[in-house]
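Hey, I'm writing a tutorial for new members on how sequence and structure tokens pair up, and I'd like a real worked example in the thread rather than a made-up one. If someone can provide the structure for the chain below, I'll link this post from the tutorial.
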Amino acid sequence: MTLARNLFAAVGFAMLVGGGAPAQETTRHPLEIRVAAEGWGNADPDDIRKVLESAGRALLDQLPDLKVPTIDVSRSRTGPITLFQRGPGGEIRIRLDVEDRHWAQFSFQFGHEICHVVCGCVDDVNLDLWFEESICETASLYVLGRMAEEWKVRPPYSTWKDYAPALQKYRDERLAQGKLPEDTSLAEWFREKKAALRKDPHQRPLNLVAGSAMLPNFEAAPEHWGALPFLNTIRGGAMRSFPGYLGDWLRSAPEKHREFIAALAMRFGTPADR
């Protein structure tokens, strides 16, 4: 199979009918998204595209030098996914498992998948793929927070301002689901869950806990999303340790991101192997 990533579908919140004049555009990361015409229930593909552009740019605006190919988005029935295999014109192919006007769910799923795109969508043996999956959960939460604020004043359509609270509510409920156990640090939690995560990287409840825990690091210094394109620069194989994985990331990234990566590693109680 050419499947790259899976993300469990989440329940959407209130629906909002599209329409109204598009909000005035500002200079944003160039992003071309093509949405399939069918499979979205009562959601209009043009409205979906507007939502996904907003979600994608919430993250990609922190990576102004990153060139992202055209993204083709189609309907999945088995969970959101980014395919390793590109389209005939080099397009990135993302499938989302959501329909109707559940814009928060569209945004959460696309935020996760666009983060995989930023990380390079590497088809490689990696026992610590759970870490990328978890950071992509962080990206979903980050994207929803940015969108909730932006849509208060500059939504894709002027009539969509009232949807901003639904985006925030969706994020808040996901954060509540991913909260660390009381009086437990991320490092303590990771020591208990490490073996399970390395055995199966797609355990969404665990990914969400790790992703939620990392969110404050990225929200305090969002410029360090720029470290993500270097996460998989070095391929490590099945024998690489988690400290080795983080060390390879640290060495691959520009100097301006290395202190951030080292601090993130320490949150897991695992110094990056320098």
